[in-house]
Amino acid sequence: MAIAVIGWQVPTAQGQSSGLFGSREIHSTNMKSFDKWSGVWRRQNLEKRKASSVEAGSVDPNNECRGRARIKCNRDAWNQFIDSQRSEGPATVGGDPALSRDLLTAVNLYINRTSYIVDPVNWGVPDYWSTPDEFFLRSGDCEDYAISKFITLKRLGVDTAHMRLVVVQDENLRAAHAVLAVKLDGTYHILDNQVDSVLTHDKILHYRPVYSINESNWWLHQVKRFGR
């Protein structure tokens, strides 16, 4: 995964210590530098509008789930998974399942089933951030898993203020990586395409956070001393 940081408008607000992965966090609401993230949401909203018209049609049974029919098949499977979590989990007001470790694990496992493929091979560009439709159709890399988990949990009623896509440096692999952090019981839990189990951020010692982002905020992470 390639990460472009040139042109960032680094936040100047005071940060708080003891943030994600033990970092100092500097918060900003200036999202202008995150074109790929904004592009995901523009395309996601467009796909939602298109889906409403596609749902009224039917997929040719002779085509099964081949070609363009795969988009509807993948979306139907995703919708069925979300419906199953709503029916199986303890309900809150509005019929959405309560946020729990079991729900996070179920979402992590479901999204992690999709194959991994790097962007230069998949899209012919160094770094492309996919919507769930694109991800389920063509597979993706680490940030695509995190994005689809974010949007899945949002559809399940999880407050997006409690979620962040986190770009980290994997100190074991010496490579950039992305995960989803979700706050549960006051602690961030990490949904990672490299691991099917869900762990709290303080149990993961080989990730050095770079920045994290949700729909309306981002945080720069500073780590004074990093060791295993």
How many domains make up the coordinates? 1
End-to-end CA span: 23 Å
* CATH class descriptor name: Alpha Beta
Percent helix: 25-40%
Number of strands: 7
Structure description:
- There is one protein chain.
- It contains 6 helices and 7 strands.
- With 228 residues, the chain is α+β, with helices and mostly antiparallel strands.
- The chain has one domain (20-222): Roll (C8orf32 fold).
- It has a 7-stranded antiparallel beta sheet with strand order 1-7-6-2-3-4-5.
- Helix 2 (69-88) packs across helix 5 and helix 3 (101-112) packs across helix 6.
- It is globular, with a radius of gyration of 18 Å.
- It starts with 23 loop residues before the first strand and ends in a 6-residue tail after the last strand.
- The relative contact order is 0.19.
Topology, element by element:
Elements: E1 24-28, H1 35-54, H2 69-88, H3 101-112, H4 119-122, H5 132-138, H6 142-155, E2 163-170, E3 175-184, E4 187-192, E5 195-200, E6 207-213, E7 218-222
Antiparallel strand pairs: 1-7, 2-3, 2-6, 3-4, 4-5, 6-7
Helix pairs in contact: 2-5, 3-6
Summarize the structure.
The chain is of the alpha+beta class and 228 residues long. Helices cover 34% and strands 21% of the residues.
Question: Which key features would you list for this structure?
Answer:
7 strands; seven-stranded antiparallel sheet; globular; 6 helices; 228 residues; alpha+beta; C8orf32 fold
